[in-house]
């Protein structure tokens, strides 16, 4: 039976095949993992295959903060028709259907990727991430360059982010203080939650966050799919990201950045410094905001598939 997921926006592409997820196994930690490394978690994922023979390493994708594997559904289905790769769209820890954890940072998310690849005997993979997911993929590429065949970073800089941790804390505080009666319908609960979140941030971010609101069919209780408390607790780690990244050597593999001209998450003046971190990199600018792959899907697919089909 096919697994059905829903993305932010329907994309006008022919459907590739989506494989049902493998049975969820219990968390098993390799003996090689020491107390110095975060414990990896079993990531929930959707796997996509096309009609082309899989002659290249698979593509692993990470979504952004508040997102889920569904965000990559349309792009993944279209990509497998253009590249000779299997595509894994994953829920990062503390998001979607992946386990909640008391730790949330790029280092931990990198260990999740490493564990994911080892379980499936993938010696290398192409990696693609948007926003928070892009930062995690950049860290992974510099931490484990031998595992990363090539890297796609979607609208995020390794140097800075436009929102302060204070602003983000207001968003999480609004989420955590939300108290909805289980007697409310889902539509009623969504309306109240949206009005409260609009006091903390703008429309587009609120609409994205609202995809996380859940209502238990048995108890009627409202919850957030993402682990809002832990994400808030680790906000200060976002500010330390560049320091952690600079402790690692540059990633010299093929790298492409795909960014939006109307997005504040990548600034052109940062590009020379970024090229020192990723010396074999290029950048593409699309007329879009932060959600580049939703706003310009055809242009995004052209750039991504051309890059993934290269043999350099």
TrEMBL record:
Query: Which Pfam families does this one have?
Result: Abhydrolase_1
Q: Does the keyword Endoplasmic reticulum apply?
A: no
Q: Where is the AB hydrolase-1 domain?
A: 57-297
Kindly state which keywords UniProt assigns to this record, in alphabetical order: Hydrolase
Q: Does the keyword Hydrolase apply?
A: yes
Molecular function as annotated in GO = carboxylesterase activity
Q: Which residues form a coiled coil?
A: none
Q: Where is the signal peptide?
A: none
**Reaction(s) this enzyme catalyzes, per UniProt:** 1,2-didecanoylglycerol + H2O = decanoylglycerol + decanoate + H(+); 1-octadecanoyl-2-(9Z-octadecenoyl)-sn-glycerol + H2O = 2-(9Z-octadecenoyl)-glycerol + octadecanoate + H(+); 1-octadecanoyl-2-(5Z,8Z,11Z,14Z-eicosatetraenoyl)-sn-glycerol + H2O = 2-(5Z,8Z,11Z,14Z-eicosatetraenoyl)-glycerol + octadecanoate + H(+); a 1,2-diacyl-sn-glycerol + H2O = a 2-acylglycerol + a fatty acid + H(+)
Enzyme nomenclature, EC number: 3.1.1.116
Cellular component, GO annotation: mitochondrion
Tell me the PANTHER family matching this sequence: PROTEIN ABHD11 (PTHR46118)
Give the similarity note: Belongs to the AB hydrolase superfamily.
Q: What is this protein called?
A: sn-1-specific diacylglycerol lipase ABHD11
The record's gene field reads: Dere\GG19637
């Amino acid at each position: 039976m096919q697994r059905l997921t829903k993305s932010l926006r329907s994309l006008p592409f022919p459907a590739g095949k989506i494989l049902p997820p493998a049975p969820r196994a219990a968390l098993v930690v390799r003996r090689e993992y020491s107390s110095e490394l975060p414990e990896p978690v079993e990531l929930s994922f959707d796997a996509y295959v096309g009609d082309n023979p899989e002659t290249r390493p698979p593509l692993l994708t990470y979504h952004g903060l508040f997102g889920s594997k569904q965000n990559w559904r349309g792009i993944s289905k279209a990509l497998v028709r253009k590249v000779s790769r299997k595509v894994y769209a994953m829920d990062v820890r503390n998001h979607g259907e992946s386990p909640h954890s008391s730790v949330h940072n790029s280092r931990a998310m990198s260990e999740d990727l490493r564990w994911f690849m080892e379980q499936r005997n993938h010696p290398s993979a192409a990696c693609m991430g948007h926003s928070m997911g892009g930062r995690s993929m950049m860290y992974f590429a510099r931490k484990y360059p031998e595992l990363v065949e090539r890297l796609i970073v979607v609208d995020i800089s390794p140097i800075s982010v436009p929102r302060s941790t204070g602003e983000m804390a207001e968003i999480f505080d609004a989420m955590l203080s939300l108290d909805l009666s289980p007697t409310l319908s889902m539509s009623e609960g969504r309306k109240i939650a949206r009005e409260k979140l609009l006091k903390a941030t703008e429309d587009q971010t609120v609409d994205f966050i609202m995809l996380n609101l859940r209502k238990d069919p048995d108890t009627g209780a409202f919850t957030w799919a993402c682990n809002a408390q832990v994400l808030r607790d680790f906000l200060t780690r976002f500010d330390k990201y560049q320091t952690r990244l600079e402790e690692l050597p540059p990633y010299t593999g093929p790298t492409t950045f795909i960014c939006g001209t109307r997005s504040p998450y990548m600034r052109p003046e940062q590009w020379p410094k970024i090229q020192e971190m990723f010396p074999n990199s290029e950048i593409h600018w699309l007329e879009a905001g932060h959600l580049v792959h939703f706003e310009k899907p055809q242009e995004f697919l052209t750039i991504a598939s051309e890059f993934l089909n290269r043999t350099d």
